[in-house]
Write a structure and sequence with these properties.
The protein is an alpha/beta fold and 378 residues long. It has 2 domains: 2-193 and 348-373, Crotonobetainyl-coa:carnitine coa-transferase, domain 1 (Rossmann fold, 3-Layer(aba) Sandwich); 215-226 and 232-297, formyl-coa transferase, domain 3 (2-Layer Sandwich), CATH 3.30.1540. It has 15 helices and 12 strands. The protein has helices at 8-19, 61-71, 85-89, 93-99, 124-130, 152-176, 186-193, 195-204, 240-250, 265-276, 281-288, 301-305, 308-312, 354-360, 365-373, and strands at residues 2-3, 25-28, 52-55, 76-79, 104-109, 180-185, 222-226, 232-236, 295-297, 316-321, 325-330, 344-345. The strands form 3 sheets. A 6-stranded parallel beta sheet has the order 3-2-1-4-5-6. Strands 7-8-9 form a 3-stranded antiparallel beta sheet, with helices on one face. Strand 10 and strand 11 (325-330) form a beta hairpin. Helix 1 (8-19) packs across helix 6 (152-176) and helix 6 crosses helix 7 (186-193). The longest helix is centred in the middle third of the chain and has 25 residues, at 152-176.
């Protein structure tokens, strides 16, 4: 798989696929061209942890030649340029299909390859905005939507969307023998994430929003509460049995019949706030979490890094960088058992595998030397 992206949804997709065993080659611009392409930090999802790297000047004829030589042997090419850019570079769908009819080109973009927003620049917050995610989220003190604490659009709506599309295309290719051009829009993915709310509106005309239903803060049984030490708990007691368990353990049993009574919600919240404020967060976790109450801590990132459940699941792995030394990082998130893994080798930004990759693609040593001399490959 050739990955033309450095960050964003396409890079997230290639990271997932690499973790599941795909051979991923990151295609980066040559440093000689003074590229301003973002290079992910050494600890992130960039060209490390099993990935290979080649640097190619795609604007040069020799660079296009080198890329298409690699693409002729690739199963998948994933890119995140604006619509039309790969075609202008001479490495788009038609050029790719000419050298490799079985290739799958996955084009990831903010708004898709067509439509009135196709050429708009954007980032995670913009895609969450147009898909309704921000509108249905919590509110700041000034009444505006809260900024999410994770890149939900890039990771889930874009990256995972792309992975699903690529895997489906590979399966279809086994039957048909033909490649495919996949048009992955991050905004489309956000729309899918918001389908519960959008479909409700389309079917009933009811307009969702913050505090509009059980999942956006309408009821006290689905909220966050401060504890005596200033730390917070999340409560997701949607089912009546879980809500009843929670009320009994908090000494609030009188509210059990009123779980979805709109007129009583502020009273229930006040009762819950008063109860939770009497003990520290972890004391409440010890009391409630294992007793079918749907209660969990709101963890800080340092707490996440030492969380017993994640540690037991081998969710972190050791890594080593040639310049930064040893550190931990989030491991492969695999659906299935994890084995103890050796430390991952994070790579220096200047390290490439260009010669070996081009040789494997059938380019002669003499031609590789010429490409290097021309500055088309590093």
């Amino acid at each position: 798989m050739l990955d033309l992206a450095s960050v964003g949804p396409a890079a997230r997709a290639s990271r997932i696929l690499a973790d599941y065993g795909a051979t991923v080659v990151k295609v980066s611009p040559t440093a000689k061209k003074g590229s301003v392409q973002i290079e992910p930090p050494f600890f992130s999802y960039g060209a490390g942890r099993g990935m290979k790297r080649v640097r190619i000047d795609l604007k040069a004829a020799e660079g296009k030649e080198a890329f298409l030589a690699l693409a002729a042997k690739a199963d998948v090419v994933i890119e995140s340029y604006r619509p039309g850019v790969v075609a202008r570079l001479g490495i788009g769908w038609e050029a790719l299909r000419a050298v490799n009819p079985r290739a799958i080109l996955c084009s990831t973009s903010g708004y898709g390859q067509d439509g009135p927003r196709a050429t708009w620049a954007g980032h995670d917050i913009n895609y969450l905005a147009v898909g309704g995610f921000l509108h249905c989220s919590g509110r700041r003190e000034d009444g505006g939507p809260a900024i999410p604490g994770a890149t939900v659009a890039d990771s889930a709506a874009g990256g995972m969307h792309a992975v699903i599309a690529i895997l489906a295309a590979l399966l279809q290719r086994e039957r048909s023998g033909a490649g495919a051009w996949l048009d992955v829009s991050v905004a489309d993915g956000v729309l899918h994430l918001m389908s519960l709310h959008v479909d409700r509106f389309l079917a009933t005309g009811e307009e969702p929003g913050p505090g509009g239903d059980i999942l956006t803060g309408r009821y006290a049984c689905y909220d966050v509460y401060a504890c005596a030490d200033g730390r917070w708990l999340s409560v997701g007691a949607i089912e009546p049995a879980f809500f009843a368990n929670l009320c009994k353990l908090l000494g609030c049993a009188e509210w059990i019949p009123h779980q979805l009574d709109d007129a009583k919600q502020e009273d229930i919240r006040a009762a819950f706030r008063a109860a939770f404020a009497t003990r520290d967060r972890d004391a409440w976790i010890a009391e409630l979490a294992a007793k079918d109450t749907c209660v969990a801590p709101v963890s800080t990132i340092p707490e996440v890094a030492e969380d017993d459940q994640f540690v037991a699941r081998r969710a972190f792995v050791q890594a080593r960088h040639p310049e930064r030394g040893a550190f931990r990082q989030v491991s492969e998130v695999l659906a299935g058992g994890r084995e103890e893994l050796p430390p991952h080798a994070a790579r220096a930004a200047t390290e490439t595998d260009s010669d070996a990759l081009l040789a494997a693609a059938g380019v002669t040593p003499e031609r590789i030397a010429e490409l290097r001399a021309a500055g088309a490959v590093e």
